[in-house]
Amino acid sequence: PRDQFGVEEKLATGSGYWSAEPSITMLYPTDPAVIYATASYAYGFEQSIKKTISGVTINKVEPGDVATVSMGMGFALNSRFSYSLGYKYAYLWPSAIDFPGDRERSKSAQVGVVALGFSFRLTDRIWINSTYEFGTTADAPNTHIMFRIPITFW
Questions:
Q1: What is the pLDDT of residues 28-49, one digit of tens each?
Q2: 113, 135 Cβ separation under 8 angstroms
Q3: Beta-strand pair 143-148/47-53
Q4: Most CB atoms closer than 10 Å: which of 59, 92, 127, 149?
């Protein structure tokens, strides 16, 4: 649902558009480290909207494509603790929205982050993972911190 200005009142669970994203990943184990690299390309399929929101009719949306590359390494200090260090860069092409008689385009964006991660195995079934990302480009968030506790039930 949207308010009278067309702003969503709840968070979206996705972009709302279909996309396809092939990727390729390379892993090179060199004990006690693993070197990795990934490249992907996400193609966003255009969608016909034909909907009026706050008095503005939207005919079509063409979401911008995204090319991403990342590389880094994971290093095991022992059988329970490891860390990783990497860099991820994404280029986002402009999106376009078609209105009756007009077409608006967003700007492209470049998002680069340095990532530092830690993983500690508490038991055979429980891990504690943390990731710290630091933006290196103007379009990237300054910092992004994530904690996860994966649990295996079988």
A1: 999 889 999 999 999 999 988 8
A2: yes
A3: unpaired
A4: 92
- 126-150: pLDDT as tens digits: 999 999 999 999 999 999 999 999 9
Which residue in 153, 132, 154, 128 sits closest to 144, CA to CA? 132
Q: What is the rounded CA–CA span in Å between residue 140 and residue 133?
A: 10
CB burial readout 104-141, b (16+ within 10 A) else e: eeeeebebbbebebebebeeeeebebebebeeeeeebe
Q: Quick count: other Cβ atoms within 10 Å of Cβ 12?
A: 7
End-to-end CA gap in the chain: 40
